Amino acid sequence: MYIGPFYFDTKEIFLILAAILLAVSMFFGWQAWWFDRRELLTLAILMLFTKGLLPSIHNEAFFILALVTIFSSLYLPIFQVILFYFVSFVMFRVLKVI
Question: Bridge-partner residues for 2, per DSSP?
Fold first, then answer.
């Protein structure tokens, strides 16, 4: 979808919508049952940033990395989750998986 000079893929629109909904839920104090909303918002912004920088990312591998990262945020501290996300993202780029 083109909005002015910018092209947004459906995955980027979904990430933008997820970040907006997480920000709204933080503003109104709605509860996410198992997840910390601040961590999810941080992860959504990081994923949107990396997806926006590299539009040639293979979507299936990035989707699996995103799912593993989100579900690992249930049990690990946010620093370890972000470190895991960036290290695996770099390794996927080096090994040409993404």
Answer: 7
Question: For residues 25 and 37, is the Cβ–Cβ distance under 8 A?
Answer: yes
Q: Determine if the pTM surpasses 0.85.
A: no
Task: Return all residues near 24 (Cβ < 8 A) that are at least 6 apart.
Answer: 30
Phi, psi for residue 89 in degrees, rounded to 5: -65, -45
- Residue 46's nearest CA partner among 89, 94, 1, 91 is 89
Closest CA to 69 of 21, 93, 29, 35: 35
Q: What is the pLDDT of residues 68-90, one digit of tens each?
A: 999 999 999 999 999 999 999 99
Query: If we measure between CA atoms, which residue out of 55, 50, 44 comes closest to residue 8?
Result: 55
